[in-house]
Amino acid sequence: MNFNNYLIVSDLDGTLFNRRQTVPERSVRAIEYFKSNGGIFTVATGRDIRFIDKRFPFIKTLVNAPIVTSNGSQLSDVNSGMIYVDLFHSKELLNRVLVDLEPIYEDATIELYGKDKIYVVHPNEYIYRRFSLLSDYVVYLDSVVIPDDDILRVAIIDHNAERIGSISRAVGKATANDDVELVFSESFIYEILPHGATKGNAVNELRSILGRDKILICAGDWNNDLSQLAIADIPVCPSNANESVRSFCKYTLCDCDEGIIADIVQSIENGLFDI
Questions:
Q1: Which residue range is the domain that position 145 belongs to?
Q2: Is residue 131 in a domain?
């Protein structure tokens, strides 16, 4: 089948990735088949570009288009290095939301993703493990300091549901008059993103680059995926997606462990999607 008219954009964790953070072989074969017959495949993730470089370099071999990283703060070509979208926070906002509110983050980890380095406040063993392959990029801090760096996004991490809920409410109140994007990328990760930094906006820019005649299929499993699912011609999710995403998507396919991209490609080939 000719897939020239199709663009698939997939989230990573919980969607393209299985629970072991690898891509099911069934999906790998489907992606290669899809691309070899004219299709365009890429990813949109909350992860920083340096995670792709160091932890998941195989992503570069799977995609044949620019990728969205940092929940829409960046759109770049991981193979050529060309950057199409680069959005940053103002230092004034970071001081007001992080330094002035520092007491509310006492038990939380704060990650500031800069263009040069990743700055981590209140690291713990979970964080040290997560950044084990990125030691060249990471600066660990004992208290909130706004670095002299361009900050793409801020992630606040707390596995205590009550505390992360209180933090999200406090940040929401403090930024009520600001043009920022606030989103949970996991139940325990709350993110503060620059104005316009959403997966949906970045995918929309990608679509302009590649051609708006493409039929856009987006796949995701969590709330930070809703903006890209909203602009898709065909929004799909794995069966492990959270309830709000399953309610939104037109199609719920297999669990992420089973290879959702293979389900998508088969559904296109068999004419199972309404466009």
A1: 91-194
A2: yes
